[in-house]
Amino acid sequence: MKVAARIIGAGVLAALAAMAAFLYAYAVGSSAGLCGEHGHGWLTAVAVVLPLLVVGSWGLRHGNWILVAWPAAVLSAAACVMLASYLDPGAHGHCETITPYSFSPPLGSRYS
Fold this sequence. Notes:
Distance between the termini: 74 Å
Radius of gyration: 21 Å
Strand content: under 5%
Oligomer: single chain
Order of helices and strands: HHH
Shape: elongated
């Protein structure tokens, strides 16, 4: 019963960490994805699975440390995804944005 309570508690803490990690990774990932092609999917999958397996299994084997290890595994997976997005050359590119000063109005139009 004690082990099940630890696993459930670690799952709840990992879910809370996943919400925070998602928001942080979304903000960083959206800036990388705005100007580039989509990155490699396998690289993102490896960046997620590897920390979850290594840190999560370590926590599962060390009793009460599971309450710290599973949220840390989620946050380290988010950090690895952001690092993979940063290092992936397909996720970046030159951004061309339109500013009010770079737009030429069509002929015949007037500003009021």
